[in-house]
Amino acid sequence: MAGVPADQLDEQDLLRELAHLHETRTETLRHGSDDALEAHTERTQALEAEYLRRHPEREVDPARLRSGARARDAG
């Protein structure tokens, strides 16, 4: 896998890499080779897993929960 291992990135680099991967996902999905898509998926999973490892108690927006979605739909 290309890139610095996720657990070796500092916080700023981890967030920057995650943002870049999310920006390029659709383009890779639509136009990348099978190998490029697989590499993109693996890198995204590694970076997201590292983020979750570092932030197990991350703030969750109540509107992003099922109950929040139901409240939006009812309103």
Mean pLDDT reading: 92
Strand content: under 5%
How many helices? The count is 3
Q: Give the overall form.
A: flat
User: Span between N and C termini?
Assistant: 46 Å
Residue windows where pLDDT falls under 50 for at least 5 positions: none
H/E topology pattern: HHH
| Major sheet | none
What helical percentage do the residues reach? 55-70%
The overall strand count is 0
Spatial extent as radius of gyration: 16 Å
- What is the domain tally? 1
- SS class: mainly alpha
InterPro entries: DUF6158
Region (Disordered): 25-75
Descriptive report:
There is one protein chain. The protein is mainly alpha-helical. The chain has one domain (6-74). It contains three helices and no strands. The chain has helices at 11-31, 34-54, 66-74. Helix 1 (11-31) runs antiparallel to helix 2 (34-54). The longest helix is centred in the first third of the chain and has 21 residues, at 11-31. The chain is flat. The model has no long low-confidence stretch (mean pLDDT 92).
Give the helix/strand layout.
Layout: H1 11-31, H2 34-54, H3 66-74
Helix pairs in contact: 1-2
Provide keyphrases for this structure.
75 residues, mainly alpha, 68% helix, 0% strand, DUF6158
Describe this structure in a few short sentences.
With 75 residues, this protein is mostly helical. The protein has helices spanning 11-31, 34-54, 66-74.
